[in-house]
Amino acid sequence: MASFNPDEATYRCPRCGGNLDVRIDFSRAARADLETSRDGSLFRYARLLPVEVPGEGDGPLRSVGGTPLYDAPRIARRLGLRRVWIKDEGRMPTGSLKDRASAIVVQRARAIGAPRILTASTGNAGVALAAMARCAELEAIVLVPENAPKAKLAQLAVFGARVIRVRGSYDDAFALSESAAAAFGWYCRNTGQNPFTVEGKKTVSFEIAEQLSFRAPDRVVVSVGDGNILVGVHKGFRELLALGWIDRMPKILGVQASGSSPIAQAWARGDDVIHEVQTNTLADSIAAGRPADGERALRAVRATGGAFIIVEDAEILAAIPALGDGIAVFAEPAASAAYAGLQKAREQGIVDAAEEVVVLVTGSGLKDVGAAERAVARTSPVIAPSLDELRDALGHD
Predict the structure, then answer these.
(1) Residue 149: which pLDDT band, with cuts at 50, 70 and 90?
(2) What average pLDDT score do residues 32-54 get?
(3) Strand partners, 357
(4) Which residue has the higher pLDDT, 96 or 124?
(5) Cα atoms in the 13 Å half-sphere on the side-chain side of 203
(6) Mean pLDDT of 108-112
(7) Where residue 397 falls among pLDDT bands split at 50, 70, 90?
(8) Secondary element (H or E) of residue 140
(9) In whole angstroms, what is the distance from residue 71 CA to residue 83 CA?
């Protein structure tokens, strides 16, 4: 294992090209600080983070994190589980967990004096970067696949990002962004490539642990595209365990869509080789044919005794109203995939009835209302303003 100073490596390992971890001195970290803190954002964990806390005048950049963890007894009964919690990241400033990564990366950009930040994105990461960069008065350049959802393109425009649509897939946009960062000297936020993305995403594990009174759940369920969120979840719990703030690691269940499942396929084969695939899934936020953090995601799941599972688009769609009915959380397809995966894993006996499980819902359904419309496929009756017609329409006596 090699170590580098910050001025020796910015993105990947200079020797092997692998993804890097940020190492932090936790000698001053104390749980007691959290008991007196009034900071509701992820920056309440400042001593566990590698960046400075933003100022009060930095708008939403200063309010990232602090999302609710809902006890979901109806869902637990439905799935035959001891207990289920839903972590609703759709409550973030731009509606997705990606705000966590972008907040930390923007603070890192400030520290090194970078005036411009670039990323490739299917939508959510770019939107998060656009908003956080605007708060910090930095220019954001976002490369998206040509078919990126209109709602996410609109958000990007609202936050003033320079948006470039790239003919091809997310993976094509990712490759171009890497080349552009090297050629033009722009700071790159890319998932997996930039080690500070994991530093933001790990804070969701800090929050889950704190919300459960520093008692780790038996399992955390994470939808997976590039694998970076899963790596962040693992790193967060691993650091808490090293600090002695929790007494065990939760198992991690990674969920991939069948139309974009290279990591889960490697898991099923029992090897470490992740083969590139052509993506074809409605869950655009987890469509990654060449996952940038796939190898570390595989290692993380194996280290926790967890598993990967593959779900179909139909199961992902069905999970949207299931979450809405079960706990009134509105999830986009990439987020509802986690619920679909838990349901399938329970049916297959991967998850035991006695387990206590946290499902990570990574993004709001407002990101893709069209998918929600497909999921419910209901027509509403049209009636005259009459009590009799209202009674008939509702089927009441």
Answers:
(1) confident
(2) 95
(3) 84, 219
(4) 96
(5) 28
(6) 94
(7) low
(8) strand 139-145
(9) 8
> In the structure, what pLDDT confidence band is assigned to residue 141 with cuts at 50, 70 and 90?
very high
Say if CB 40 and CB 62 are below 8 A apart: no
8 pLDDT band, cuts 50/70/90, is: low
Q: Yes or no: say if 218 and 244 are a contact pair by the CB < 8 Å rule.
A: no
Is the pLDDT at 16 greater than 80? The verdict is no
| C-alpha span between 138 and 296 (Å, rounded) | 30
Evaluated on CA atoms 154, 156, 158, 160, the torsion sign reads negative
Which domains, ranges and CATH numbers included, belong to the chain?
A: 62-95+197-376 (3.40.50.1100), 97-194 (3.40.50.1100)
Name the 3-class secondary structure at 357. Answer: strand
DSSP state, 174? H
State the number of CA atoms in the 13 A half-sphere of 382 facing the CB.
0
Q: Report the C-alpha gap between 170 and 172 in whole angstroms.
A: 5
Give yes or no for residue 333 having a pLDDT over 70: yes
Planar angle of CA 354, 355, 356, nearest 5 degrees: 125
Q: Work out the mean pLDDT of the chain and round it to a whole number.
A: 93
Find out whether 105 and 76 touch, Cβ atoms under 8 Å: no
> Which strand (E) or helix (H) includes residue 159?
none
At a CB cut-off of 8 Å and minimum separation 6, what does 285 contact?
Answer: 96, 122, 123, 124, 225, 332, 333, 334, 335, 362, 363, 367
Ordered DSSP codes for 252-292: EEEEEETTB-HHHHHHHHTSS---------S-GGG--SS-T
Q: Which residues contact 345 (CB under 8 A, 6 or more apart)?
A: 221, 253, 307, 309, 351
Q: How far apart are CA 291 and CA 363, in angstroms?
A: 19
Residue 10: is its pLDDT beyond 80?
Answer: no
CA distance 134 to 355: 42
User: What angle (nearest 5°) sits at the alpha carbon of residue 194, between those of residues 59 and 96?
Assistant: 45
Share of residues in the chain with pLDDT > 70 (%): 97
Q: Is the dihedral of CA 301, 336, 199, 213 positive or negative?
A: negative
The CA-CA-CA angle for residues 194, 88, 44, to 5°, reads 60
Torsion sign across C-alpha atoms 331, 337, 341, 343: positive
